[in-house]
Structures are given as C-alpha cells and as structure tokens.
C-alpha cells in the first residue's frame, strides 16, 4: 500500500490538528458541552428510584455486615495471639 492510499483511507478530516482556542473560548465550549450532556440525562421514574435506593441500601448493609464480621474475627484473633494466657 502506498503512502497516499493509506492517508486517503482514513478520511480527509482526520489529518487536521485541532485549532488552539483561547482561555475564555475554552470555558464557553466547556459550558456548551456541559449543557448538551445535561439535556441527555433521563430522570428515573418513581419505581426505578425506589428500586435503585433499595439496591444501594441493601449493598451498604451487606458491606457493613461483612466488615463488622471481619473486624470481630481479627479483633478477637489479635487478642488471642498477643495476650498471655493465664498459666495454671
């Protein structure tokens, strides 16, 4: 494949470097893009919101139980390892 064939297969617009924009133009561009992305956001229905909330609460409770269990096991294990047992 020749160099001209390879460059033509990528399209004409891909070889251009993006032009530098000024500081304030960059800020304006950011806010335009932010507004266009916010227009794409879909508000969940009430049932979806309740479902998502219950999933998050369930996950947090599960993680609390796992961490509490591990804390109890490691706490009691360290007490057994690092304390002297009374000699009889």
From TrEMBL:
It is found in: Cell membrane; Membrane. Its main location: membrane. Gene3D superfamilies: Preprotein translocase secy subunit. GO terms for biological process: intracellular protein transmembrane transport; protein secretion; protein targeting; protein transport by the Sec complex. The chain crosses the membrane at residues 49-70. Signal peptide: none annotated. It comes from the Bacteria. Keywords: Cell membrane, Membrane, Protein transport, Translocation, Transmembrane, Transmembrane helix, Transport. One of its GO terms (cellular component) is plasma membrane. One of its GO terms (molecular function) is protein transmembrane transporter activity. It is a single-pass membrane protein. Belongs to the SecE/SEC61-gamma family. Essential subunit of the Sec protein translocation channel SecYEG. Clamps together the 2 halves of SecY. May contact the channel plug during translocation. Component of the Sec protein translocase complex. Heterotrimer consisting of SecY, SecE and SecG subunits. The heterotrimers can form oligomers, although 1 heterotrimer is thought to be able to translocate proteins. Interacts with the ribosome. Interacts with SecDF, and other proteins may be involved. Interacts with SecA. This is Protein translocase subunit SecE. It comes from Paeniglutamicibacter gangotriensis Lz1y. The lineage of its organism: Bacteria, Bacillati, Actinomycetota, Actinomycetes, Micrococcales.
């Amino acid at each position: 494949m020749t160099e001209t064939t390879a460059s033509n297969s990528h399209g004409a617009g891909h070889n251009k470097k993006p032009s530098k924009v000024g500081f304030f133009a960059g800020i304006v561009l950011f806010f335009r893009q932010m507004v266009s992305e916010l227009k794409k956001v879909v508000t969940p229905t009430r049932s979806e919101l309740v479902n998502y909330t219950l999933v998050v609460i369930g996950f947090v409770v599960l993680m609390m139980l796992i961490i509490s269990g591990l804390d109890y096991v490691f706490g009691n294990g360290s007490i057994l390892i690092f304390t002297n047992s009374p000699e009889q």
